[in-house]
Amino acid sequence: MAKSYGRCVTCESCGSDDGKTTEVRRVYVTPEAWDSEGSVTPVAETEQWCDACVLHYPHQSVEEAEGQSADA
Ligand SMILES: [Zn+2]
Known about the structure:
The chain is an alpha+beta fold. The chain has a domain of 50 residues. 21% of the residues lie in helices and 35% in strands. Strands 2-1-3 form a three-stranded antiparallel beta sheet.
């Protein structure tokens, strides 16, 4: 296991070190239930994800989120 942390390109979700990662916020999705509505909660901290995780898991793009406020 790699001990280095920081500038490496290891995916923080699955541990793959394919090479390219994207900065995202993980999003916790609570499924709808009979007594409650579903909810989607992005976490505050960002993570580096590989393409596969970006494709398959719920997340919020950091670039998109920041672009919204800067857009004018
Ligand atoms: Zn991954």
